[in-house]
Amino acid sequence: KGYKWRRTCKIIRPPRSSHCPDCDQCVLRYDHHCPFVNNCIGQRNYHFFVGFVTSVVCLALVVLPGLVWAILTPLTGRETSNEEGVSGVLIGVIV
Known about the structure:
- The protein is an alpha+beta fold.
- Helices cover 46% and strands 21% of the residues.
- It is rod-shaped and about 70 Å long.
């Protein structure tokens, strides 16, 4: 009950599945197509996607304060040694 024939995929579509126009496939409990992982987010990989987003947020929480510090330290003029100035310039060039 609830199964329907899908003309675009040529399969019997399970209930609560949707067709992804980017992947051209039916996905069970389709949420969205994520361009960052180049995959559809659905029932079988939703927990992997949440883990990916969590790791990106944790990485941003670690990297962004260090980046802000490295950029603002040379601007304040309170450098104590030449090494801090060099590290600020290197990080500024990388960014």
